[in-house]
Specification:
It contains eleven helices and 15 strands. By secondary structure, it is an alpha/beta fold. It has three domains: 3-101 and 334-354, 3-Layer(aba) Sandwich (Udp-n-acetylmuramoylalanyl-d-glutamate--2,6- Diaminopimelate Ligase, Chain: A, domain 1), CATH 3.40.1390.30; 109-126 and 240-332, NIF3 (NGG1p interacting factor 3)-like (Udp-n-acetylmuramoylalanyl-d-glutamate--2,6- Diaminopimelate Ligase, Chain: A, domain 1, 3-Layer(aba) Sandwich), CATH 3.40.1390; 133-234, Alpha-Beta Plaits. The strands form three sheets. The protein has a six-stranded mixed sheet. Strands 1-4-3-2-15 form a five-stranded mixed sheet, sandwiched between helices. α6 runs antiparallel to α7 (209-219). The protein is globular and about 85 Å long.
């Protein structure tokens, strides 16, 4: 299949618009029209992983972390980033990354951690203010309302959490007069016409706006299509950083830490002082999640499970929460399973391999 079929599907699950400003998610190298025979899934597309792809005949590597974060000015093989890109291009291997966009969706990296820990009643810990929602309002003849609604829904409008095809519809009277150059769908040139119309309203994520308008114009019968695009201030509770959920039953602090170490295959856990209080609400964030400490405290979490806390940041817990730093790689390792599950659901006959390379650069004694 074409590479674009795969990337389009991944981006429908985790839109690139949801990545952080510093990130470089998307197609790192490769042509979107190239034919893909099989893909290798990994956390980091380092040299050993590219070698593994070559050995297994894979011409696509799907990674969580982008191998390139900032622009490369030279390709001399002087560092591991340059060597990876050179080797991938020489062997016609495409590299694709879904990083913070996959972190920031409700059923992304953090949901996978929550699933592993058995958390229930999960929701986004810090909803994004950048993932803006908008509303489209349009008007059409009664005879065409179902066709127009379907086009909007198929383009991505009307999706709210676990529901889709959501809209509000009302009847009204529309008037217009066509001039001599017009080709009216209804009425006569030079005479004011009035007819019953359906007003259709639906919300949509701002990043699909051009696709949505194209879909509307392609099916609407009017020569001049009336529509309004309105910004709304509702927070998008299905996009953002971290996940907070609950354990099925309260658990002693040390018992939970032992479970955490075993489940997340951590070599060790750095944690703050215990509070002599059972754990019920758990906040999680794959990768570097120290920026979510105040959100976790405000949400009433008993513990924040993440990675990359600095020494002085541990003091900020101030006995209001337990910080459990399990390591960056350890917190994100199950992203590989997430990629596999996402792709197999859509492309169940496509050859997907999971990398056998442990790309964790940190070793423990």
């Amino acid at each position: 299949m074409k590479l674009q079929e795969i990337t389009d599907y991944l981006e429908s699950y985790a839109p690139l618009a949801y990545q952080e400003s510093y990130d470089n998610s998307g197609l790192i190298c490769g042509n979107k029209n190239m034919e893909i025979t099989s893909a290798l899934i990994c956390l980091d597309s380092i040299e050993a992983v590219i070698d593994e792809a070559i050995e297994n005949g894979c011409n696509l590597v799907i990674a969580h972390h982008p191998i390139v974060f900032s622009g490369l000015k030279k390709f001399n093989g002087n560092n591991y980033v340059e060597r990876v890109i050179i080797k991938a291009i020489q062997n016609n291997i495409a590299i694709y990354a879904a990083h913070t966009n996959l972190d920031n969706v409700h059923y992304g990296v953090n949901a996978k951690i929550a699933e592993k820990l058995g958390l229930v009643n999960c929701k986004i810990l810090a909803p994004s203010t950048g993932a803006k929602l908008k509303k489209i309002i349009t008007f059409c003849p009664e005879s065409k309302d179902e066709e127009v609604r379907a086009a909007l829904f198929n383009a991505g409008a009307g999706s709210i959490g676990n529901y889709d095809q959501c809209s509000f519809n009302s009847n009204g009277m529309g008037t217009f007069r066509a001039n001599e150059q017009a080709t009216p769908y209804l009425g006569e040139k030079g005479r004011r016409h009035q007819d019953t119309e359906i007003k259709i309203e639906a919300i949509y994520p701002a990043h699909i706006e051009s696709k949505l308008i194209k879909a509307l114009l392609s099916v609407h019968p009017y020569e001049e299509v009336a529509y309004d695009l309105l910004p709304i201030t509702n927070s998008n509770n299905y996009v953002g950083a971290g996940i907070i959920g609950e354990l099925p039953s309260e658990t002693a602090e040390m018992d939970f830490l032992k479970l955490l170490k075993q489940t997340m295959k951590a070599e060790g856990i750095r944690y703050t002082a215990l509070r002599d209080k059972k754990i019920k609400k758990v906040a999680v964030c794959g990768g570097s999640g120290s920026f979510l400490l105040n959100d976790a405290i405000k949400s009433g979490a008993d513990i924040l499970v993440t990675a990359d806390f600095k020494y002085h940041q541990f003091f900020d817990a101030e006995n209001r929460i337990i910080i459990a730093d399990i390591g960056h790689y350890e917190s994100e390792q199950f992203t590989i399973e997430l990629f596999y599950d996402i792709l197999k659901k859509k492309f169940n006959t496509f050859a997907l391999l999971i990398s056998k390379i442990n790309t964790n650069p940190i070793k423990y004694l």
